[in-house]
Each structure stands twice: as structure tokens, then as C-alpha cells.
Amino acid sequence: MKDHAKLWLAYTPKKNNRECALLSKFSFAGADGTDSIVKNAAAELKCGLKSMLDIEPEIVYGDTAAQIKISNGKDMQAREEYSISLSGEGVFIEGGSAAGILYGVFDILRTIACEKNIEEAYKAKKTVRPSNPLRMLNHWDNMDGSIERGYSGESFFYVNNEIVIDERTKDYARLIASVGINAVVINNVNVKDAASYMITDRYFDKLALLGEIFAGYGIGLYMSLNYASTIEIGGLDSADPLDEKVISWWKTKMAEVFSRIPTLKGFLVKADSEGRPGPFTYGRTQADGANMLADIVKDYNAIIIWRCFVYNCRQDWRDRKTDRARAGYDNFMPMDGDYHDNVILQIKNGPMDFQIREPVSPLLGGLKKTNQMLEVQIAQEYTGHQIDVCYLIPDFKEILGFKTYCSESNDTVADIISGDTFNSRFSGIAAVTNTGNDFNWTGNYLAGANLFGFGRLAFDTELSAEQIAEEFVRMTISDDEEVLATVLGILLPSREIYERYTSPLGIGWMVQPATHYGCSVDGYEYDRWGTYHRADHLGIGVDRTDKGTGYALLYNEPNASVYNDPEKCPDELVLFFHHLPYTHVLHSGKTVIQHIYDSHFEGYDEAKQLAAKWETLKGKVDEDIFENVRERFERQLVNAREWCDQVNSYFYRKSGIPDEKGREIY
Amino acid sequence: MKDHAKLWLAYTPKKNNRECALLSKFSFAGADGTDSIVKNAAAELKCGLKSMLDIEPEIVYGDTAAQIKISNGKDMQAREEYSISLSGEGVFIEGGSAAGILYGVFDILRTIACEKNIEEAYKAKKTVRPSNPLRMLNHWDNMDGSIERGYSGESFFYVNNEIVIDERTKDYARLIASVGINAVVINNVNVKDAASYMITDRYFDKLALLGEIFAGYGIGLYMSLNYASTIEIGGLDSADPLDEKVISWWKTKMAEVFSRIPTLKGFLVKADSEGRPGPFTYGRTQADGANMLADIVKDYNAIIIWRCFVYNCRQDWRDRKTDRARAGYDNFMPMDGDYHDNVILQIKNGPMDFQIREPVSPLLGGLKKTNQMLEVQIAQEYTGHQIDVCYLIPDFKEILGFKTYCSESNDTVADIISGDTFNSRFSGIAAVTNTGNDFNWTGNYLAGANLFGFGRLAFDTELSAEQIAEEFVRMTISDDEEVLATVLGILLPSREIYERYTSPLGIGWMVQPATHYGCSVDGYEYDRWGTYHRADHLGIGVDRTDKGTGYALLYNEPNASVYNDPEKCPDELVLFFHHLPYTHVLHSGKTVIQHIYDSHFEGYDEAKQLAAKWETLKGKVDEDIFENVRERFERQLVNAREWCDQVNSYFYRKSGIPDEKGREIY
Asked: Has residue A257 been placed in a domain?
């Protein structure tokens, strides 16, 4: 028995392209055949062609291109670019470096796996340069094997505080490289217990080996760092970033770390957040903390990624002036320009915490002189725990396409994180990942679409959610047209359906505290987390306008004016920005309360339809896949029903306004 | 350093009675000096007199009274009776048996510890017969050392699945015997893991030794039993009480158990409750299950105590017909008379689960042909976790004094559980206990009053809450009159204060799920536990009248009519029985909503006053005691404030009705 699924690299036999003679000969240019990445690319190509088409290609290697030292994100993009062209002699893949060749190989294999005709696909020379320099996964794996917000088993990196390297490690690298990921943070941002010792001799050998494996697939190794390492493992009594003893300890430590793990590319740091230590403890700024570390790792061409998830997690629910949504902006904007050029700020897509619907963080489009990276979450923490199906790529597309009005052109989030808008030295996109040691990696097979899709979208932000979903289904589930249509009919609307049966109109939360799965309308209402809906018998929502917390004004115009005005604000965000009476009429023509009722009944009903669609696939897809998803739909329907009935009952009991359609509310 | 406090057996030097010559000579009658209980009584007397008064008494032993074999509760009471009289020669203690002598000794030591004059106290011969045959503590200790609903450390019976017997074991026996406890169930009613093996060779030797120690203080050893032992440790595939293989297994097992633990008195069983196995699994009645076991243990003069806490814990919150409050009655009344005469049904005081205010269970006064025992809880699960001070004896007094109208006279709960009303063969009272291995046994020193008070009240239900509190304070904290007045001023109103700042008017719950500490008004509202307040924008409460679930009619008249009518129902229970508009006027003259506001503001305010009173004791009581209680008051005030503000805000937001007094609501 296989211990893990091969997912989109299953390379099952294909019908088309079997007679394509061009596939018998490949020329690689850009790196010679001795490069470990090129070797892996060649092996992958041979394996894929043999399995899918029974072709054993000859590969000719060209010269190595002049190796550019990477000094910024543009260099990275250039080195990862690839071109594919056909000639009478065969297929020609040219890479900006070995990594480019690898991506080109995966492009060809994907084309074959999707049963597209090679000669048509590459009739014109195809050149692709990745949209983002950094395309990163953040693992929240703990060294005891648990995964914070993990919904697909335990860690495959760690067992009992030891690093495990096996067949799965390599297959993981193949899977994520195949969709274009080039950076992985291998441990939880909440660094504690054994993870504090990752930068000690105890783990160096294994980390060096892991880094080598990753490097062979063009993937940079990153680690989360405990900001207070000087205290926790260094024996100092301070972590003050301006303290000479602290700086000196880090210099020595980093020299050791980079000499022992030569492939290491940098660190991710969560400081001063949710109880984690940080520079605020010492009266220093976030920039002081980040720059201190960045200056030291600069000698090793490494970077410091600094999370902007800093807010007061001990807020008083009685206090309506403090606004958690403002926290990231208020904490990080004043120092725009102060961060050194190998620091990247990693910014969550929304100002809160990965809710099913949030406005885009105003830091994106606010910061103009700081390297930036967008953080999204494919671990379905608030979006159904990989029980409920929730294809997130449409959400990410909206975020990337959001016009920030930070400049006259090239002002979308995609533009900013590509590095184009501000000519940033480094930039990119990271996802908190959704993997674990479950056989199928992601718990629900359909959740694999988010892992696949994140990588593909990060590499090419122009791809549509539909294209990506189609590739995923064809490669992972089935290329039968009827199956494809059915699964697309499940994946594509799933995020809006999840939204409809959960928290309405952008207000977010209403989840069970701690687990974040299941409904509890008041679950966080009287708690310390700054996450309130402020519903009373007359209305609901948070006033974040100029008359409220002022958050809406943190956006550039015209966004600020749009969000600040309940008549202009898009319906889907209106309760995020405004406290409105239940009788307020939305752009949709419905009142707020009727929208709540309608969307919840519809959402639950649509969830049932999704489940029914899946049932039609019995016997048409792999039995393991069918049962896995079927069982999760069973649980999703229980969840959706609870959400629907609890939300509707809560607001009916509170408002006293009946459903226009007289449906059953409790 | 002492590893545990001596509490009310501290025997500190006393001022009074030092010149009392009578205390130099004691005569014990009823058992001779070779009896282990008498030996312990003599040792206790000598130790107490020496420590408190520097007196070393001579003790003369009389003949052993004719030993009556105990065949019912009346025999037990007779054997535990004691008389104390004075003559020119000294103090004469006559016991119905050795246990009576022990209780007599503790009576005298208590009198001295409370600085009461011996010659006055016993001027007239004092004869005391315990009110209840069984006066029991139920430990919810697990063998891994954890305690379910324990708020004062870990178990002192178990460490790492082993039974620990040390100095503390004996001091525990002394402490509880001194207040009249004569039965202890030493393990959690939820029997699982290692506890399933308590009836195997693995633990017999230690249990025999523990039973011996208890027996030396007149305490019977009881164990909780896993109803499914035949499956879990017996290797059978059934626990059907009518299955011959099951019966045969139990016969063999019980013969082994009682031969190895000769002092064992019986078992407590939680069956068919909250996921525990039971006879319902096999389509049998609760009586079938209990009787099967009872018939087998009868040969060893042992009893089966069967808990009536059987209800549907997977209820649908949408369902307003099912009423958890009815469950005990509906499950157990139909078989009244079917239970064999060495079965006792153990009935929680209220129909729900130890809320701060509940009506008395209608099984008490309903069952007429069944042995009954009342179950209360001194572990402060719903009453403040031994952080908040909550002296429960006033609550227990109300319960015991409740007239059930089950007969023309002798119809109170106290009458029923004494065995008088129905001439029951066995009866009594049990408390889920509040102890752990904290230095002071009960977390908060003031929670010791509930352990002390439960024993005292179980022994003599005529004692008042005030008398008991005074004894506790004098013996445990200080006999200084000012300190006494202050601590009484804290203890006596504490339960009503706790009630005022938590859930109002008998509705109960509104607690944080799982932990049961802290406020969450909707915490259980949309959950499966059958514990709802049904609040909407117009009103609150559960309709348990003839027009609702009919629960009110389960009581004898006139209770049924009183509870069924909102105009007659006592205010403190009115929302338990009725769904009422917020504008309904209570007997107090206040509306429901104004009562909610007033009681919560008052309760929080009064909690602050309690804390302030305690502050005045700095320097006047032991520093350890002072700091222990002070620190808990700090936490109580945080808790009380949250309750006050959350409940008021919740109902203001829901009802839209402002506080008449315009106080701040959020």
C-alpha cells in the first residue's frame, strides 16, 4: 500500500499525444546536466512521459547560462523564467536557470496530463515568467508532530521532536515545485518547545539534508524564528534588538546556522503577537527588531520576513474605540521606509484573520517604501476545516485584483506583491498551508485544489480560478468530461456557498471559539479578541467610518469614500464597515435581516445540492476519493444546517422580524 | 513544611476549659478498648486535649455492647448514636457502637475548639443520633491523578494509575469522620482507563489497606463501577443484565472482590448517562441493571447505589417538546417498587445539574417504594470553581426543608432521605466532593466550609447554616470574635450574591461550555445538552407548565399548582417554569428585565464588598489563609464583573429596554 497519494503527479496513462514524435527529444538550455535541479527535471520528465504516454525521451543538455547572483526579486523571476518551443527536432526548453527548466518540464507534463495537444499548446513559443519572486508555503507544524490549525493529520516533517526525511519529503518537494512554489517555512510561526532548538546543533544535520532536497527542486528553505532565542536558548536576560550583547549573540548564532545549513534562505518572525515576545517588550519598534536580524543575515544573502499580525489580543469587549482592524496599519505604517532592504513585511490579506470575507488590508497600498508579501491561508481554519468544501482561489483572485489606488497604474495587490508597483527589492505571496500526513495530504481530496491552486496562482496571477480548477480536476481526480463538469460545479461556487451559510455581509466570526469550526454567533462577542458583531435588537455591524473607528479612512481614495458610505459600500462588506438597522435596504433590494434569512436558507440548500452532485460520481471516480469526499459532505451538511438554523434563530429572536417567506426559524 | 493543612483539626491552644477537671477522666461505653475505632477515638481525644488544653486524660473502657448486625439504615443510625454526660468523676461517652464513641469524642473536641464551656455544653445529657444512615462523599478522582470537576489540585488517592496511601490518607479519614461522614466513593463515576481495573488483582491489596484505614474511622469504602466491566475487562461481548453469562461473570468477580477487600460496602453506578454504558443498550430497564448487581452483592451485605442522572445528552436545541428536566422522573418513576431492597437510587437535588438555583427534583417525593439518597455537589462546578466564594449550606438547608407533600407529615426531603417517611431500608445523602491535593485541600480556604458543613449537616439536618459556619470559622480560621463576624458576613450571603451576578430567576446555565466557569449567555443555547433559556426580543424562560413540557405537574399538589402558575411561582424559580415577557412584574414589584439589571449590578457590587471585608482581616488571620482567599477574591471580582456586564448587555441588546436607573450597559 502506498503511504501517500500522488495527487496531480499520479501520471496515469493518457490517450492524447501518444503519437507525438516531438516528445522523443528534448533540449534543455540554461543549465547543464550536472545541476541537481536539472537532474530532477530530467528524471521527472522521463518518469512522466513513460507513465502517461510510454515515451522514453532523449534529453540534450545545453550550456549553463551565466549564473546571476540573486540580489533582488527581479533576478529571481528572471532565473525562474522558462520558454518552451517546438522544432522539427523536438521540444526546446530554455530556462533562466535550472529552476526555469524544471518549471518548463512541469508545464509540459501538465499539458499532457490535461490531455491537451502538445503541438497546439506550444505552437507559438510559450514564455512564462513567474508573477511573484517569492511563492511560499508557511507550515504551522510543531515539532511534537501536531499542526496548529491542521486538518489533515499530523506533521510529515516532525515526529516526537525529530525531523523525519523519507520518500514523502521528496514527493512533497515534487508536488509543490510542480505548481511553482519556491519557498517553504518548515515550522510554526509560534516557535516554542523543541522548535526553539532548531537553530542548534541538535537539528543542523537533518536541516541541511532537508535543505538539499528542497534545493533540488528550486525550493528555498526558511525557518520560523523565536524572537526571544537570546533568552530561551542563549542564556541572556534580554532580547532588546539594540542591546550589543543581543546583537553579538545573534551574529555568532547566525554564522553557525548558515555554515551548517548552507541552503537556508532566511527566517519568518511572528513577534509581539498573541503572547509572542518581540521588540515592544523593550520599547523598540518592529523595525528595530526586524532590521537587527536582517543586518546580520544579510551576510548570508538571506532575508527576514516579518509578520504584520500585531494587535491587542486582550481587548475589552466593552471598548468600542479600539479597533483590531486598525492594528496592523497603526503598528506598521508609521515606519514605512525604515525597514532595511532585506526585510519583507508579510501582510495578511485582510485586517482581521482569514475570515470568509474581509476587505483587503489597507497596508497593501498603504506601505510604499517597504518590501511586502501577501499572506493568505489555505489551511481552512475559518472556512470549514477541510470538512466543508471551500475552493479559495476565487477569493484570492478578488484580493489580487483589488485596486488599491496607491499609484496611477499598476496599483492592484497583484501589482504590489509582484514588486512592480514600487520596484520592491523583494516581494511575493505566502500561504499558511493545508497539508498533513493524511494519505491524501489535505484531509478532503477537494482541499487539494487549494494547495494546487495557490501554487499555480502565485506563479501566474493571470490564471483564472476556473482554469486552475480544471487543471486540478483533470490531473488529480479524472479527465472524464462529465466528472470534470460535476466537480467544477462543486468547487467553483463553494466559497460563496460557505459564505452564505456562515457569517453574513462581511461581519465575520460567529464561530465556535478556539476550534473555529461551527457556529456560535456570540462566541467571540464578549471576549477579548477584538472580534465583535455588536448586534442588538435594532441592528448589527461595526461602525468603522469616520464617525466610528475611522478604519475606512485608512484606504486610498476613492476606496475610503466608498467604504465610508453605507450607500456606496459593497453589500458583501457592508457590516464590516457599518452598524446598520436590520431594516436597512441593501443594493440587492433586500433588507439586512431578509438577506440574513435568505442567504442562510440558500446556502444550506446549495450545500445539499453540492453533496447531491458528488453522489452522482459514485463509480465514476476512484472509490477512495469518492468515499473521502462523500463522508465530508455528510459532516458539511450537519455543519451547514447548524449555521443556517442558529444564525437565523439568533437574529429572529433578537430582531423580532419574521422571515418574509415564512420558513421555519426556531 | 507540612504537606497539607490540618484545617478544623488543627487543635491550636485554647483559653477556656483549661481548669476543667472533668476532662481528666473519660469513660467510653459501647465498645471495648481493643476496637480499632475506639483506639483511634482515644488517640484523637488525647491528641486534641493535649494540644488544645495541655490535658492528658485517663480513659476507662466499658464493655462492648451487643453487636447488632446491620440490616438496614435504622440499625446504622442506632449504632452511630452517642450520648455525652458529665458526672463528678468525669466525662461519660456512650456509643451505639465504637463509631458512636468516635463521634462523641469529636463532639467534645469541637466544643473545646469552639471555646465553649464543657460543663455548660453537657450540663444536660446530650444524645445525638445521626439524621441520615448514609452520609457519603463521592470522589470524581481519576486514577491518572486528574479530578473531574476538581478545583483544588490533583487527586490524593491516585498518582500515575497507582493508589497512594500515606499520612494524608489517614488525615483525610480523620477530617471527614470528625464531621460525621461514614461512606466514601473513592473513584469517579465515569469509570474508565485504569479505573476499570480497580476490581482486579492489580489494586486489591492497596484497596484492602485503604478500606482498613477508613474502617478505623467508621467510614465505609465504596467504589464506582463500570457497568460494562463484563466487556471491558471480562472479555464477554455483552453487559445485558439478564444474560446468564453476564450474571455468572459478576458472581465470580464479586466473590473475588469481597474476599480481597473485606471492608468494601458497595458500589456506585452511573449507567446510561452521558455516553456511559448501561442496561438501555440491551433493551433492559434501569431496575434490571441495578437489581442484577444488587442480588449478587447482597451475599456480602453490600449495596448498589444507582444514579438517576439519565437524560438525552444529544438533544436538538430546535426541539421544544423534549425537556431534560423531566428525564430523571420519566426514566425512574415507572419502576418505583421494582428496585430490590439493597439498591438505592441517588438523586441529584435538582432536575438539571447543580445550578445555583433549581427546584427540588420531583423524584424526591415522587418515589415512594424505593430507597433514596440525595446527591448534592460541594465541588463548585457551576458555583465558582472554588475561586468565587459560595457557601452552599443555605442552599442545602432549603433543599432539605422542601415540603414534597408526599405524605401527611414527615414529608420534607430531609424526612425522606432520613428513611422516616417511607421507612426505607437504606437512605442518606451524598456530596460530590471538593477536595484535592492542594495544601489546604479545597483550593480556596473558604471552600472548606462546604466540606465541613456538608458533613455536619448530613449528620444533623437540624443544624442551621449559621451554626455550621460559626463552628467552621472558629475551628479553621480564628475564634477571634471580630474575625468570626467578618467571615460569617462573607460566607452567609455568598450564595445569594453568586446567584445575583450569574443566571437569573432560576433559569440556570449561561456558563462557558465545558469549563462551566464564567459567563456565556448563549453558551449552551444552540447546543445538544437540553439546557436552554429561550430568550428572544420579547421574553425569556422555559414553559414547563401544562401548556409547555408539563414538568410542573410532576410535583405533588399544591407544589404542582404553585409552579404551574406564574402568579404563584416563587420569583427565584419563575424562569425555570415559565416563559415570560421582560415586562412581566414579579412578586418583588420589579419587571423581569429590571430584576436582571438590578440583581446583576447589586451582585457585582456585593462581591466587591465581600472582598473589601476580607481585606480588613490582614494581619488578623494566618498569612497563608489571608493571601489564599485574597487572591481568589481578585479573580472573583473579574468574574463577577464579566457576568454582570455580559448578562446586562445581552438582555439590553436583545430587549431594547433600558435600565430604569440609567447605569452603564454596553
From this structure: yes
